[in-house]
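Session log. Operator J.P. requested a structure for one protein chain; no other inputs attached. Running the standard single-chain path with token output.
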Amino acid sequence: MVRQLVKHDFDLVYGGASVGIMGVIADEFLRLKREVVGIIPEFLSNLELSHLGLTNLLVVESMHERKQKMYDHSHAFMALPGGMGTLDELCEIITWAQLSHHHKPIYIYNDRGYYDHFVLHIQAMAENGFLKREHLNLIKVCNGLDELSRFLVQDFRS
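Structure written below.
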């Protein structure tokens, strides 16, 4: 997946940790000579082991500031399989798009069906009148590298 993003000339903006799946992805972007910006709240800096080898590591005061800075530095958003923090960030960026705060692409990398239940849930929200049907189009679910590449070409014409 990293090679697909690099092929389309993407750099990485993420939460700034040296551990977990995003730490591995950051290392791969760096190995491929891409820019990597990490943004981590001060209180998590020591707990998550800030990645000290990044192109730029920004330490901010709060989770809210982290999400705003990540938004400011990004041209698109992609959620990989993750935990509650990932879900929080994904839902907030979708909400901002729903409110027309931005028109940046939002991708969900649905590795091995990880986000199937989430996608079904937001479809149920639309079916039950809690979400406008057109807002389902704010999210592009990528079920593999070919689909991801097709969306990137479509959205960025690279």
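Operator note: The first helix runs from residue 2 to 7.
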